[in-house]
Amino acid sequence: MLKTLRAGAPAVAVLFAPVMVWRACAGSLSPQEFTQVERGRYLSILSDCSGCHTAPGGKPFSGGRLIETPFGNIASANITPDVKTGIGTWSDDEFEAALRKGIGRTGAHLYPAMPYNAFTKMSREDVLAIRAYLNSLQPVRNSRSPKTLPFPFSIRAAMTVWNALYFQEGSYKPDPVRSAEWNRGKFIVDGPGHCGACHTPKTLLGGERVDQYLQGASLQGWSAPDITGDSRAGLARWTVEDIALYLKTGHNRTAAAAGPMAEVVDLSTSKMTEEDRQAIATYLKSLRGR
């Protein structure tokens, strides 16, 4: 989520994400469908789908962007409703399984470069709203190579072990003793925002070290800083307003976004509502440092 001039991190891939059948352009949708489409559009912003699924110079959401991982590059999927190279023939259940369970259409495991371990915290209704939004897009014919990882990382069956170690399926459960704003912030940070994908240190297998939640990590030459309340390296000196302003504009009185985080601000956090940026800031300020 937060990266400064001294720290940045690649936007994490939303690979193999939303899938749908293209039915009509947005102008012919019913009022009820339009509401779902608009909800899905906003959830796709929270999830920063376009950041990973749009290649430099390519058409929006048509995939092909190479996503760096410690194990090799992965080409992002075409998530337009093209029936041959996109996701135009997937069912609702297949779509949900990919986004919330990490299971592809063929039944094979997906790689956590598509952060299903975070997206599982969205509800079925959330992910089907994203599907409805993607369903409203113009189909784009653009194929990609799904096999870019070297052996043995190309063996998808190994994800069974990874999932047993690091994946817990289930939608977000609000903390009843916390405010609605705090819960909204935690949901975004842990769910669609998948902040831990960059800001939580990883094991050798690429899983998140939950005991070092959001305490900063290094990824592909960029450093994603500690975004807890740690007084040495974290956000202890940042106010709620500082965080919200940073998410809106990419800078505040102490820091400015650079590199991949500048893209995240441009495509995602700057387009969030003021209420959601405030909720994220409120949640992050509640986290204790090391």
From TrEMBL:
Main enzyme class: oxidoreductase
Q: Which Pfam families match?
A: Cytochrom_C (PF00034)
Q: Where in the cell is it found?
A: Cell membrane
Keywords linked to the UniProt accession:
Cell membrane, Heme, Iron, Membrane, Metal-binding, Oxidoreductase, Repeat, Signal
Name the domain of life. Bacteria
A GO molecular function term, named singly, is: electron transfer activity
Q: Name one GO cellular component term.
A: plasma membrane
Its protein name is Nicotinate dehydrogenase subunit B
Tell me which species this is from: Bradyrhizobium ivorense
